[in-house]
Design goal:
Blueprint: H1 5-33, H2 48-79, H3 84-95, H4 99-132, H5 140-171, H6 176-199, E1 206-208, H7 213-225, E2 232-235, E3 246-249, E4 256-260, H8 261-266, H9 269-284, H10 287-309, H11 313-317, H12 326-341, H13 345-366, H14 369-382, H15 391-397, H16 403-411
Parallel strand pairs: 2-4
Antiparallel strand pairs: 1-2, 3-4
Helix pairs in contact: 1-2, 1-15, 3-4, 4-12, 5-6, 6-10, 7-9, 9-13, 9-14, 14-16
Length: 415
Amino acid sequence: MTNYLPYIFITLFALKTVTELYLNWRNLRHIKNHQGSVPEGFQEKISLEEHNKAARYSCEKIKLSQLSILFHSLIFLAWLPGGGLNQIDQIARTWATNQWQQGLTFFAIFFIISYFLSLPEKIYHTFVIEQKYGFNKTTPKIFITDQIKQLLLMTIISVALLSLVLKIMSSYPEHWWFIAWVVIIAFQFFMMWAFPVVIAPLFNKFSPLEEGEVKKQVQELLDKTGFESDGIFIMDASKRSAHGNAYFTGLGKKKRIVFFDNLIKSLDSKEIKAVLAHELGHFKKKHILKSLIRSVFISLLGFYILGKVANNDLFYQSHFVSTNSTYMALMLFSLVVPVYTFFLEPISTWLSRKNEYEADTFAAEFADARDLISSLIKLYKENASTLTPDPIYSKFYHSHPPAIERISHLKSLVT
């Protein structure tokens, strides 16, 4: 009987690639077509020159993304129909004596090749595009140091985690998928705790927010909302980039509020309070908890499906792999799942946007919506974020509503 599944898989992959290229093309065309005038409501704050800069910056990133999609699509085809995974598997089986060693060797070769294939794009984005538009502050020395640190961390973490998962897969052939899922979830929770106190300080310096009007405004907001944290910190993001941001990190009592130093310099105390109120909205509306619960159950479903197909010859044959193994099941599943789930991405985007509107509404209750509007406009301007993305592209990819829609929503909340 003819196996049509490989043809179905390649068709889905082709549809995914064509859709990505088409959506990028739409976005590029839409931004260029609206480059000539600043959208209504932004003219007083953003000049035509600044609007044009954002358009050119966005277009250059889109063009790089187009090349990246094509390049990585060819690499993907080389791994599967081209037999790349089979060749790495043969090398691993030659170099190592047991399946555990073979698995680690297989993943090591794959990740080393993948890392060096992705490196030129990172370099071009950082030292050409970001440099051209005045955002890059990373020196070659910092870039190389960061890459070395990341590789060392990834090696330590990956070897430890893969070793454990591969051992579980071989030791518990019937229920390994559930045990492995528990281990992965436990690891993710551990990383949520460890990231702010162990990993992040390896790359950036975190200083407590100094006494002054900003800290006063922030502390009043925290007291008013009943939010407890492990501290409010300023991160020296400016040594790598001119972009500004703020975020929460950590778990339980180790939650931290982190402001980029660029953001502190750009916004006044009331605007910073409004930005923080928005971030607190995500926490108070339980968006982070809901997202975490969704992630836990989706990963459980993924491991369950992997457990069902890991010993099925058809799974491997349908994706151009000749030899079954526990490590190949892990790798193959991680590669092909995005092909099958790509067209579900707008659902995730819709949920994220819904959360953003709710967080903005929360912010308007505990801060002045006008301060959040002015802070967002400053961030759009200083980060050269386009005000005119293509609507369809935006609904597919953008976790935040477009500037025009978001500002309009905030204006309706002004009291």
